[in-house]
Amino acid sequence: MRATDRLRFTDRRSAGRELAARLAGLADEDPIVLGLARGGVPVAYEVARLLGAPLDVLVACKVGAPGNPEYGIGAVAEDDAVVLDHEAVGRLRISQEDLERAVAGARAEIRARVDRYRHGRRLDLGGRTVIVVDDGLATGGTARAALRAVRAQRPRRLILAVPVGARDSVAALRKEADDVICVREPDPFWAVGAWYANFAQTPDTEVAQLLGGTATTPVVASGVGAREVRIEVGPSDHIVGDLVVPERALGIVVFAHGSGSSRMSPRNRWVATALNDGGFATLLLDLLTPAEALDRANVFDIALLADRLVAASAWLSCEPAVGKLSLGYFGASTGAGAALWAAAAPGAAVRALVSRGGRPDLAMPRLADVHAPVLLIVGGRDDVVLQLNREAQRHLGGVSELAVVPDATHLFEEPGALEEVSRLAVDWFDRHLAGQVTSSGPMR
Fold first, then answer.
1. Per-residue pLDDT, 14
2. Closest alpha carbon to 20 in 410, 423, 418, 335
């Protein structure tokens, strides 16, 4: 395999998931994600979905040279933001009349696309963190016009995010945005499409479909079902989850989030998407009710959180679409302690468990009763948690492995860290969950 092949994205959606991992830290800023039509929308959709953020479209068009429309001499975005390459205009000796005609044509195309995609609705960007997403940066002219259009709406913070870009363009656009996030800056660059295995044109129907969905209820591929579910946990209380079931699922993995998070955790959603792609169903849960979440003590009540996992497991066992699937847990931070506590319950149906940056020490009294295979994933620079995991592993009652991701910290924010977590998780569940037979009856 050539070095360039290893740098290529499979398609825009997979590039969006990789980009989203680099943007995970922005989830707490309650951002708005704008996808540059058309190719930027599939990328932006994955970013919005993994950040749990609203998604909208941003329309910008290249201004082509008169007589040679493929040769760009500038760009126009919504709200009449115009960027022109005056050097190219002068070199080609384009008259003012011809230039105005070319710009007018681009503006007409923008109006048509806005009507086609947005149908009169528009998000208010004032005072918000706004992430503008495209599928790549070549000259950067279209992105520059788009950023200026957004800046005019007075966002609190403006970020440009792309999977791949030419280094000079990335550097130049740092003057237009508060930050530019680019996953790969290959040299030589060639063209955006060179860095995708599939760079087919994004049709208007796909743009409309993606914009018609929401970040929390994604549009999914044929043969895959996604829905929000409610699970009763008391006479008048319930917890909420997002259930995704691929066609011919190999098993189902229930996620337990950490103390400062929820089912909207972008890192857990990243891993869940990788598991869905690998053929596993997933259930991302809010382990506490909204009222319970107001009491900080509850987020460290491992027995309570474990009870919620047991309740979710029992609910799943009665669901026709997933009741016969073998069960796994994926726990992050304190959620890993809860997952281990639940896995130690008498008659537990869980067949495999993965911990990401977990606190297995919180389940220390019950680790000897955990007989499902356990994978402990820890960042190499997460010193305290790494030591806690090494100690806890000695107390586990069944098969276990400790995987250390080099140079990663507790949140796995470093480039490639979450991808490695996802790879390890998919492999572990492939080995220990896929094809397993469930126990009869629900978990009690």
1. 87
2. 418
Q: What is the pLDDT of residue 285?
A: 93
For the chain, which residues score pLDDT lower than 50? 1-3, 214-223, 439-444
Residue 382 phi, psi dihedral angles, 5° rounding? -95, 70
Domain spanning 225-432, CATH class: alpha beta
Structure tokens at 78: 């919504």
For the chain, report the end-to-end CA distance as a whole number of angstroms: 51
Is there a common fold for 3-212 and 225-432? Answer: yes
Q: How far is CA 102 from CA 59, 114, 294, 431, in A?
A: 17, 19, 57, 59
Helix or strand (DSSP H, E) at 61: strand 60-65
Question: 311, 377, 319: which is closest to 342 by C-alpha?
Answer: 311
Task: Find, among 331, 342, 391, the residue nearest to 366 by Cα.
Answer: 342
Contact 30, 53 (CB under 8 A): yes
- pLDDT confidence of residue 441: 40
CA dist list (Å): 303 to 268, 309, 349, 362, 391:
21, 10, 17, 10, 21
Predicted model pTM: 0.66
CA atoms in the 13 A half-sphere facing the CB of 217 = 8
Cα dihedral sign for 421, 423, 428, 430?
positive
pLDDT on residue 120: 64
Give pLDDT tens digits for 324-375: 899 999 999 999 999 999 999 988 999 999 999 999 999 999 999 999 999 9
Distance CA 353, CA 359 (A): 13
Q: Where are the domains of the chain?
A: 3-212, 225-432
Residue 22's pLDDT is 86
pLDDT at 4: 54
**What is the per-residue pLDDT for 256?**
96
Q: Which residue has the tokens 């680790």?
A: 367
Strands 350-356 and 327-332: parallel
Residues 31-51: b if buried by 16+ CB within 10 A, e if exposed: bbbbbbbbbbbbbbbbbbbbb
Question: Taking the domain 3-212, which CATH number applies?
Answer: 3.40.50.2020
Q: What is the predicted pLDDT for the residue at 436? A: 65
Pick from 320, 318, 355: nearest CA to 340 = 355
Nearest to 248 by CA among 282, 281, 284: 281
